[in-house]
Amino acid sequence: MTEFLTLEQSIRRFAELTPDKTAVLCAGGSITYARLWESVQSRADELRRDGLEPCRPYVFRASQDIDFLITYCAVHSIGAIAVPLEHGALQDNFRAVYDEVSSCTFAADIADILYTTGTTGKSKGVMLSQTALASCADNFIADLHFTADLLFIISGPLNHIASLFKIHPTLTAGGTVYILDGMKDLNAFFSVFELPFRRFATFMVPASIRLLMQFSYDRLCALSDRIDFIETGAAPISSADMERLSRALPHSRLYNTYGGTEIGAVCTYDFNDGRYMEGCIGRPMKNSSVEVTEQGGIRVSGLTIMSGYVADPDSTAAVIVDGCICGADLGYVDAEGMIHLSGRSGDVINVGGYKVNPVEVENAAMSFSGVKDCICIAAEHPVIGTVLKLLVVTPEGAELDKRALAQHLKSCLDAFKLPAYYESVDAVQRTYNGKVDRKYYRK
């Protein structure tokens, strides 16, 4: 089996090779590789004195700063298990997680427990081995080409895989991480590009990409020779957004990556290819295997998958079958061997016997200039039963032109995919990591 470096081993390695190189930056300061390794060792000593032992969980809130990384790595250095929760987690939720993990016994290879957002059910603690973490980092290095001269900007919450798992490949490659506190301040984001680095990259959910293009498109275009790559994921990105981002950054690699807490990062597609294939997730990454079953389900295996759910053997057995994770995502393989997602089994809406993927309707609507954001949900018609309803957020100051939007959708969707109802709303409910919160609309 391939030997992977852990995150902590990588930090120690570069503390010896390039001690004065900056490892991490944030609004509160910066830290070199040497100082970072010293701080990790010091924090580990503190945690040991406080009674933390190998194979025991350590629950803490994820802050968007260097101190989070020091604690996260210190926990691993002891051989204990990091359990980072959302920074704003309520005390009752914090206590519930603490009680759950404290009552369990864990295998020696478990390194992280990440709690899912619970958008498709109860939040679950996902157990991840050190091998899963390191092989996921290896996937990114091999397929997205992380290098030592890269500054990777992290703006998402560090208790979530999409952001947390970019630290490992960046520092394993000897690069530098910049931690932002979200995308609320676009000036703070653009100011990072004034730093003396040759190559920049970042991860953004599609909603953040759309925000950036809506309010700062010209500033984004001005960085076309500086941005090496942008990765997106966690939610579908429309072909219209793919095309517009590609026009802004014609020389950049633009990746749509497929992954999740249970499976890691397993497929990726550079959509800056002139085709802008909506739903395409490309081919499997280095340490992963991704297949589409005869029933259209996505099946994932390989080194990056989870070890199971905390204190929930039934849910674990339902998801992991013969070493493969069989989730709710549906898809197909095209003639080139590229994998495409076609929705989730729980999200598909049955309209008059036709099965409609709401994401397809939403992406079509997002290509209309009068739509800032939207969600397609099921609604009941008094005569014909289940129909589609489109909830629309319009640009500031604009009114929803239902007739024009309906005509636009009619030009790009089959008749059975057309909404029967349109409603203007102030906002679409999303989880903290940018996914549409479909469970909210099923209440």
Task: Walk me through the structure.
This protein is of the alpha/beta class and 443 residues long. Helix content is 31%, strand content 29%. The protein is built from 12 helices and 24 strands.
Report the helical percentage.
25-40%
Query: Main sheet, how many strands, which sense, barrel?
Result: 14 strands, mixed
What is the end-to-end distance? 47 Å
Query: Which structural class best describes the helix and strand composition?
Result: alpha/beta
Q: Regions with pLDDT < 50 over 5+ consecutive residues?
A: none
Annotation, overall tally of beta strands? 24
What is the helix tally?
12
The rough form would be described as globular
Strand content: 25-35%
Average residue pLDDT: 93
Radius of gyration: 22 Å
Question: What is this entry, summarized?
Answer:
This protein has 443 residues and is of the alpha/beta class. 31% of the residues lie in helices and 29% in strands.
List the keywords:
globular, alpha/beta, 24 strands, 3-stranded antiparallel β-sheet, 443 residues, 14-stranded mixed β-sheet
Give the helices and strands, then pairings.
Blueprint: H1 7-17, E1 22-26, E2 29-32, H2 33-49, E3 57-61, H3 66-78, E4 81-85, H4 91-102, E5 110-115, E6 125-129, H5 130-144, E7 150-154, H6 161-172, E8 176-179, H7 186-191, E9 199-203, H8 206-221, E10 227-232, H9 239-248, E11 253-260, E12 264-270, E13 280-284, E14 288-292, E15 297-302, E16 308-309, H10 313-319, E17 320-321, E18 324-333, E19 339-344, E20 349-351, E21 354-356, H11 358-366, E22 373-381, E23 385-393, H12 402-410, E24 421-424
Parallel strand pairs: 1-8, 3-4, 7-8, 7-9, 9-10, 10-11, 23-24
Antiparallel strand pairs: 1-2, 5-6, 6-16, 11-12, 12-13, 13-19, 14-15, 15-18, 17-18, 18-19, 20-21, 22-23
Helix pairs in contact: 1-2, 1-6, 2-3, 5-6, 8-9
